[in-house]
Write a structure and sequence with these properties.
The chain is an alpha+beta fold. The chain folds into 3 domains: 75 residues, Winged helix-like DNA-binding domain superfamily/Winged helix DNA-binding domain (Arc Repressor Mutant, subunit A), CATH 1.10.10; 165 residues, Beta-Lactamase; 87 residues, Enolase-like, domain 1. 46% of the residues lie in helices and 18% in strands. It has 12 helices and 11 strands. The strands form 3 sheets. Strands 3, 4, 8, 9, 10 and 11 form a 6-stranded antiparallel beta sheet that branches. A 3-stranded antiparallel beta sheet has the order 5-6-7, covered by helices on one side. The chain is elongated and about 90 Å long. The chain starts with 6 loop residues before the first helix and ends with a helix. The model has no long low-confidence stretch (mean pLDDT 88).
């Protein structure tokens, strides 16, 4: 656990972080004295900054007389020094309004959320589509293609649709297929692969369909990566830290879908909290110049996704944290509303 700083050094660290975030230039003692009207001499401030540097809260770039916050300094700032910076009522209303316009278009939520978050936070936004911890059946439909071929359309609760061609040993009518679909939907809708077990007395054709369903759900659980939406890459590339072309490549590679698990530590996400990973706290070395602010959203035990931002460690942490937290609340409300509508529809159908 980080040792608590005395009030003077804590205040100096807070000012150094604020000044460096605003200017992107190393911060010197004279700047602090003149800009913040400190009742301390430049010499005293230099001595205190030397102590902060010795304790690894700030560092001293070779080309500058000023200091910059270290990962340790940013962490102390986030844990102890930053104040709240809530979104304004106008910003919250604008965000809600934009989602209200596409309330019924589930497929557009992720893309819209990434665009809104990027615009609000002015950095790179990442959003993963909500999915169950375990894939669950919503319903199936069996369609006769010809005498010996049936198309099985499987809809999962996350609105994913999968299809499978089935070869049948003998001809079966569409009427019989529809009746079989109805029986399976009544018996297995909402179940995961582990919960889906055909009774021993089930008809042969029903047991066969359930076996195929279990195989498909198992494959989804083992190999499915959540659909990911990104927006605002240009915001990060415009930051001075990433002006060089090789740094730009690092940014692009870091947010590639194949590297998503390195960016978002899914296993560490906790309901109703925002996770902040700063610099070298990120698991992958390519992310050691970045900070990631991410939150889980959705309905616990049902559909869950992640929403967050990626940017340089020199970021406005209070603003980023409050923005991600509010966006996660909005997305959770949307998912909860969708689930209520789905449950109501299933009750009416039954």
């Amino acid at each position: 656990m980080t040792e608590e700083l005395n009030p003077r050094r804590a205040e100096l660290l807070r000012l150094i972080v604020h000044e460096y975030v605003d200017s992107a230039a190393p911060v010197g003692s004279q700047t602090l004295v003149k800009k913040y009207n400190l009742l301390l001499s430049a010499a005293t401030i230099r001595n205190e900054m030397a102590r902060l540097e010795g304790d690894r809260y700030i560092s001293h770039p070779h080309t500058s007389a000023g200091r910059v916050p270290s990962d340790r300094g940013y962490r102390y700032f986030v844990e102890w020094l930053m104040g709240d910076e809530e979104l304004s009522a106008e910003e919250k209303a604008r965000i809600r309004h934009q989602f209200h316009q596409v309330a019924g278009e589930v497929e557009g939520w992720g893309e819209l959320a990434a665009a809104i978050l990027s615009q609000t936070a002015q950095t790179l936004a990442l959003v993963t589509a909500p999915r169950s911890a375990r894939s669950r059946l919503k319903h199936i439909e069996l369609l006769e293609l010809n005498e010996r071929t049936v198309l099985m359309v499987v809809v999962l609760q996350e609105a994913r649709v999968r299809q499978r061609l089935l070869n049948v040993p003998e001809a079966i009518s569409q009427e019989a297929l529809s009746a079989l679909s109805t029986r399976i939907n009544q018996a297995y809708a909402g179940l995961s692969e582990a919960e889906m077990m055909a009774p021993a007395e089930s008809p042969v054709e029903e047991a066969a369909i359930v076996a195929v369903l279990r195989e498909m759900l198992r494959g989804e659980d083992e190999g499915h990566q959540p659909e990911t939406f990104t927006d605002g890459l240009e915001n990060v590339l415009a930051e001075p830290e990433f002006a060089r072309s090789e740094r730009a490549v690092e940014v692009i590679e870091a947010v590639d879908d194949r590297n998503l698990s390195r960016v978002i530590p899914f296993e560490r996400l906790v309901e109703d909290s925002v996770l902040v990973s700063i610099g070298a706290e990120n698991r992958d070395e390519s992310l050691h110049d970045f900070s990631v602010v991410v939150s889980q959203y959705g309905v616990r035990g049902s559909l869950l996704g992640a929403i967050g931002i990626v940017g340089p460690t020199r970021m406005r942490y209070p603003r980023m944290i409050s923005t991600v937290r509010y966006m996660a609340e909005v997305m959770s409300d949307l998912v909860a509303g969708l689930q209520r509508e789905t449950n109501d529809s299933e009750v009416q159908t039954n």
